[in-house]
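FAQ: What does the model actually see?

It sees only this:
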Amino acid sequence: MTGFAEHRSIATVALVVANYDEAISWYVDRLGFVLTEDVDLGGGKRWVTITPGKGQGARLLLAEASDDAQRHAVGNQTGGRVFLFLETDDFARDHALMLEKGVDFREAPRVEPYGTVAVFVDLHGNLWDLIQPKR
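And it is asked to produce this:
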C-alpha cells in the first residue's frame, strides 16, 4: 500500500481550444458529446466541460487559449501523437455516424489485438482514436 486512496480516477482532462463556443459546437454536433458545465469565471474565462454520451469516462475541460504559448499548443497538445481515446460499444455505428457528420478520419478502420480502431482529428487537428476494445 502506498498510502494513497484506493479509489481514485482521472476525472477531467484539459483540452486547449481556440474558441469556447466553436469547440462546444463541434464536440456536441459531431461527436455527440454533452455540455455538462458552462460557468462564467469573469475576465473572458469560462469553466466548460463536456462528456461523451451519458457521461461515461473523464470529462473534457475546454480551455480557451489565452496567450501565445497556449495558442501554439492548440491542435498539437501531444506533439503529433494520438491524444485521446474515444471508446464505443459499437464501432461500426459510431464510425458511420461520425463520417456522416463530417468527422475527418485519417485511416480506414483496422482490427488490432486490443480492438477495432481508427484515427480521426478534431476541429483543431488533435489526433483521437475511435476504439471498440476487445472484451
